[in-house]
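## retry 2 of 3
previous attempt timed out at serialization; input unchanged, resubmitting
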Amino acid sequence: MELKKVALNDLHEKLGAKMVPFAGYNMPVRYSSDIEEHLTVRNGVGVFDVSHMGEFMVTGPHALDLIQKVTSNDASKLVIGQAQYSCFPNATGGIVDDLIVYKMAEEKYLLVVNASNIEKDWNWINSHNSMGATLENISDTMSLFAVQGPKAFEALQSLTPINLSQIKFYHFTVGEFAGVSDVIISGTGYTGAGGFEIYVRNEVAEQVWNKIFEAGKNWDIKPIGLGARDTLRLEMGYCLYGNDIDDTTSPIEAGLGWITKFTKDFINAEQIKKHKEEGVSRKLVGFVLQEKGIPRGHYEIQNAAGEKIGEVTSGTISPMMNVGIGMGYVATEYAKPDTEIYIAVRNKQLKAKVEKLPLYKANS
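## retry succeeded, writing output
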C-alpha cells in the first residue's frame, strides 16, 4: 500500500526531517536528535505536525446518543468548548481505540482518533449508528499542529486576538489564528509540557505553520518529530494505542477506570463493570529502572525468583531523568507503587521499581 502524505510532507523533507512510515503515513520522526527535540519541548516550545490523526464530525439530534453508546466516558457532561478523553470499548472487553471528544455546539461533536485506526474506528462507529446520527469523516481535509512546551502560550499569543492563557486544560475555542478564521485552538497535548493543538484546513496549513515559526522565533521554537513525541508521552505515562492498550486490554487493566463511567449504558458496559467490581488479574504500571539498561516492548517482566509476571509494552531512556523507564502489564499483586520488579534484558535481570504516574515529576 502506498504511504499517505500529510499536507506539509514536502516542507518536512525540505527541513531535513528523517521521514519514516508510521500508521500508514510518511511522517517526520526527527529533525535534529530525539533528545534535543525532547528537551526543547520540556523547557521551551516545539511543534509537532500530527496531521495524520483522524477527525470525525458527529452531528444532528442523535449525535450525543451515538457518542454515549460507543464511548466509555460520559459525554453528556461536556459543555460547548470542552474536550474529553475517552475510549471505544469493544464487544470482548478490550479497546477499539482511545480518542478525544470535542463538544463544538449543541448537536455537534468532533471525535479525534488515532491515525492507525481511522478506517477501523469509522467502520465501528457506523456499525453502531442505529439512531441515525450524521457522520462525516473529515480526516483528509484537516491538518493538526501540536505546539507544546512551557513557552507555547507566549510564542503563539501574537497570532490571535483570543486570550490563550484563558484556554484551560481540555478546553478549546474556535476563532481567528494566524490570519485564518475558524481555527480550533485546543488546550490539549500528549507531552505533559503544556501547550495547544491547532486544527486547520489543509489549504491554509503551510501559511499557519510558517506564521507559528515566525511568531515563535524569539522563543527558539523548533519542529519536533515523532521520536520525541514518544519519549515525552512515556515520561508522563500516557498510553499509546497498539503498545499499551489494544483490542485485548480492558480499560480497567489499563488504569482507564477514570474515563469509564457506569452512570450510562455503553457497548459492553456490563463486562467492563465486572472487571471493576471483581478486580482484574493484571494491571498496567509505570516503572523506573534502578540500574543501567534500556527496557523495550515485549521484554519479560519477572519477580525476584525469575518467574514471569508480565511484559513491557513501552520503554525508553528518559531524557529528563537519564534512566530507563517504561510501562507494562504485571500481575496485580505486583502493581503497587514501590514494588520491586525485574526486567529481563537478554540473560540479565535488571532491577526496576513500580512508580506512580507520571514517571517524570516536573517539580521533583
